[in-house]
Amino acid sequence: MSLDRLIGKQNSDGGWPHVRGKSWTEPTVYAVLALWTAGEKQAAERGLAWLRATQRADGGWGPQPGIDESNWTTGLVALLPPEAIGPKIHAEAIAWLMGTTGHETSFEYRLREWLLGTPKRRELEFAGWPWIPGAAAWVGPTSVAVLALEKEYARRPLAGIRERIDDGRRFLLARACEDGGWNHGSVGALGYASKAYPETTGMALAALRGVRAPQIDPALTIARQFLSDCRSADAQNWLRLGLSAHGALPPQYCLPPGISFRTVPEASLELLLADAHTGKGVFWC
Asked: What is the chain's Cα-based Rg?
């Protein structure tokens, strides 16, 4: 999708739909990131105005204005440059991220597990981020939050931000599947080892940029396999970003035939990937 087509999908309120219809936070952030990076500031500013108007009182964003609860999309908004969204609004988004963890690392949950005599599990030791507050942490929102906080740490190298990034990365490493890569959440469900998924493997690898750990090489291997086999546009985007984060994107790579970037997030991320392999772009510090 070209920039002109992306601009053409903008709603009259300034936001973007996933495909058509009402404006949602996720596609609006992706579209604004793509347009701002490309220098299309007029359309991007209309999207930024929509985001400013839809911020909730707690500093976060819901998936769309009609849903009265902040969620993981706040991490996406925090990826926007402070000079674009506004320093105060950006700081509030970062504060929301810093104050949000998965329910399984809360004091109440751990006390309950201790009272029940439940054996400790390593994958529950580290605090990730949930899709919505009060729920368990998952790989996707944790990866997005780590990417946003890593950029914030480059601006403000505070110990608290570094600790939260490191904890989120330990969460991801502890959730690596046996076959390499990452599932959406648990490494084991209903007594069975979870299989890795393409999208979440790419997202986790992007968030683990610069990390040296035994989990990385198996994840890169399965990510390259997914890249060859997968026909999902979303998966192709995140796999390319994750492999680029480790300098492991095959040099002669080209998209498999039949890939269609149909949704606004897919098309926007495809546009943003143009310089990701160089170590530049909105996702890297």
From this structure: 18
